[in-house]
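Submission checklist for the structure archive. All mandatory fields must be present; incomplete records are returned to the submitter.

[x] Identifier: AMP-dependent synthetase/ligase domain-containing protein
[x] Organism: Psophocarpus tetragonolobus
[x] Residue count: 674
[x] Sequence attached
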Amino acid sequence: MADHGGVAVEVGGETGYAVRNARIKELVEVPWQGAPTMAHLFEQSCEKYRHNPFLGTRKLIQKEFVTSSDGRKFEKLHLGDYGWETYKEVFARVSHFASGLLKLGHSVDSHVAIFSDTRAEWFIALQGCFRQKVTVVTIYATLGEDALVHSLNETEVSTLICEFSLLKKLDAIKSRLTSVQNVIYFEDNSNKEEALLESLSNWTIASFSEVEKLGKESPVEPCLPSKNDIAVIMYTSGSTGLPKGVMITHGNIVATTAAVMTVIPNLGSKDVYLAYLPLAHVFEMAAESVMLTVGCAIGYGSILTLTDSSSKIKQGTKGDASVLKPTLMAAVPAIIDRIRDGVLKKVDDKGGLAKNLFHFAYQRRLTAVQGSCLGAWGLEKLMWDTIVFKKIRAAVGGRLRYMLCGGAPLSKESQHFINICMGAIIGQAYGLTETFAGASFSEWNDSKVGRVGPPLPCSYIKLISWEEGGYLISDKPMPRGEIVVGGFSVTAGYFKNEEKTNEVFKVDERGMRWFYTGDIGQFHPDGCLEIIDRKKDIVKLQHGEYVSLGKVEAALSSCDYVDNIMVYADPFYNYCVALVVASYQSLEKWAQQSGIEHRDFSELCSKPETVTEVLQSITKVAKATKLVKSEIPAKIKLLPDPWTPESGLVTNALKIKREQLKAKFKDDLLKLYA
């Protein structure tokens, strides 16, 4: 039997085509015996790696504001080296905070929310709550007021932990919050605004260090949770309406952690991980859980200070990556694309020999990666790495060996860029908040693009036929269908939303829990999964924005020039496009008034000035209905012939048939993205 990829397996529940990781026969639940929860795992890791560096934060040397030519002010930071705390020191801080939280008056039966950008104290607060069996609600620092109020009130949060700069946002909504009693803020380097603290005085207000001091002086015995206790209620960003809170158990976190440890090669205490993605997102929380388990050093940064050329880094000073020199990073495709675009722009700016040399070396290495040029390995590879790619790798510290990518589809161009220019393996992961990121993970030596690997060892993945969409497990050459994830990483459901929970979570006759993702996938012969579609008409674009195609179509249908419309979004791009059946009367009237000559309606629809007029009109309607930029079609194809039930492109009720339209106008859609 193969020891890589995935193999078919018999499972319970709804009929489908199920696969497990080829390396295991039984699903992995824990990294080692005696570690059923993150609280146990954290304590054991801190004992095992007690003298190793654990959490690192850069010192602020100087903060200044620069005024641009248009009068806008931008903050620029001069940051120093990383200051490190060992596993032993971090464990002491976590224990102190856990005790201080209770001494401050937090009831263990109520929830704590963390509302902050990623930083060492975020992680310490999380582990401190786990140590006293307290459930943590995670909230994005960028969340709007309504969603923030909804999240805090729905979960009846009694203690809110946030960074000082976000206290202003809290002040604006304080009258709408029904359960908050305590506020703990992370100190920063700015002056404390006493007036702001005074305005929040109806709550118990304390700084993070004050809570730690309180716990150090009055220690409380830990109360470790069990595997089925809810560790985190994680609010998803929400594709429609208000965000949903996913209930994640300690067992879910530990299972994903145990599984990922087995698939990243040579993972261990000598690794250094750069943490800068939001800890309120499942991807980053899962990654940092893995790092603490293997004794890795975690250095904190931010997306705005990541590289020497990042927007908040003072010119002439160093970004996080070049100071930390990480061996491991996680990234979403949008960030990889940003790094790639920055490198290519620098190459173009240099021009001449340097530009030609880069493109020649890149092409030689690309041919080798794709397996058709052995000459670009070995000594030749060493030569190109030394002459061309070494300087590029310095942008992320020069030691990067593995990059984990998730959150959205990664283009083949970006995958090859990381392989070649950064000299790093890139692992693509597929997972959801509802599966604590644990679904599938690509093999380290799989250079094929577009695949997200076999199931993680903690999960089964099953495809279930979706007749309506034409995706069947009997399809040749590969079975296709809706992706359903089962196993130890599948979460407990949505907080206070039983109806939605019952809709997408199922328990089979063997007691295994399954989550119906709504994504469409296909299994390659080696058991590796590829995501090919989305069951509902909600598409996540390249930068992570969701576009609800139906909502956009409904809004744009009010445009005078539109008789019918189908919006299409390719997840490898950051914009959508549309097929528009033109309104004959409106367009002919415009042509007459504008003096546009044409033989027939078909010719009128093909004229560039006609397309421009309709696109401008659509954009105007879109803005009037408050669609955001990513929802407004960037390009359109005008069609002269109406869609009728007889053509099979719309139903008898004249609702569009998306799959049939995509098939018929496949070439036109490809041209719109060309």
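[x] Structure attached
Curator remark: The chain has a mean pLDDT of 90. The chain has three domains: 6-29+432-534, 38-61+85-225+271-326, 538-672.
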